[in-house]
Specification:
The chain contains 10 helices and 5 strands, in the order ββαβαββαααααααα. By secondary structure, the chain is an alpha/beta fold. The protein has 2 domains: 31-138, Glutaredoxin (3-Layer(aba) Sandwich), CATH 3.40.30.160; 165-266, no CATH class. Strands 1-2-3-5-4 form a 5-stranded mixed sheet. Strand 1 and strand 2 form a beta hairpin. It binds zinc ion. Zinc ion binds at residues 8-9, 128, 132, 148, 151.
Length: 267
Amino acid sequence: MKTVYRAVCIASVLISGCTLMRTEISSPNAYQVERDQLVIHSDFRLAKRHRLLDELVARRLDLAAKLQLPLSDEPIHVFLFDSPSEYHEFIAKKYPSFPDRRAFFVETDTRLKVYAYWGDRVGEDLRHEVTHGYLHAVLTNLPLWLDEGFAEYFEVPRGQRGVNAAHVELLAEQLKFGKWFPDMAQLEKLERPEQMSQQDYAESWLWAHWLLETTDPRLDLLRNHVARMRLTGETPSLSVVVKSLEPNAPQLVADHLRSLLQSRTLH
Ligand SMILES: [Zn+2]
């Protein structure tokens, strides 16, 4: 059985500067590769033109074009550990309150940082966490669920239109047995990453996918909403805006899920 426990991040964590670390476990720093906004620190040599880095760099432009966001030149520091044990040891010492995850995004007042390790799922993990970095470099007030919905959408490899197969299967199963129905207002109540279940991540992705991939008016609605957040610094309720344009949105989102499941079955 495929495990559904996956990389999630801690977004918008404010780190106090008073933590003294007597047993110093340093983050990787032997090698450094710079690619546009990304500064990748590692203790192993990583090819500057590695295809994973190429994809992460391309994602920056994908994201800016899709959401009509400006490009930032604020560095995103990616600390890439050689092994899971070194990564977990570092995180346990440096961020003892963090839950056990494969990768993290951390935002402080002055830096955007990603921690991850080189493993089988490093591509997915970095696409997810670096998406948070790109978003937080230009948006300061994304609601948690939408931040995660975008990250889940952009973690899918390029060329797949953001279809996250694991999420489709999970939600379709819940929908089929009447255990769940789309409810964006409920997602908007989530304030902390640890409150989010796997189903919440999947539903956040589904709403993002419906807005980004179905019709031009929905895409425009989302772009305008994001632009308004940037301009005003406010975080208005997207569910209210969506409801005014499409009162039947939850049903349409459920239909969208069924059509994604159908197209997966047909392939
Ligand atoms: Zn995340």
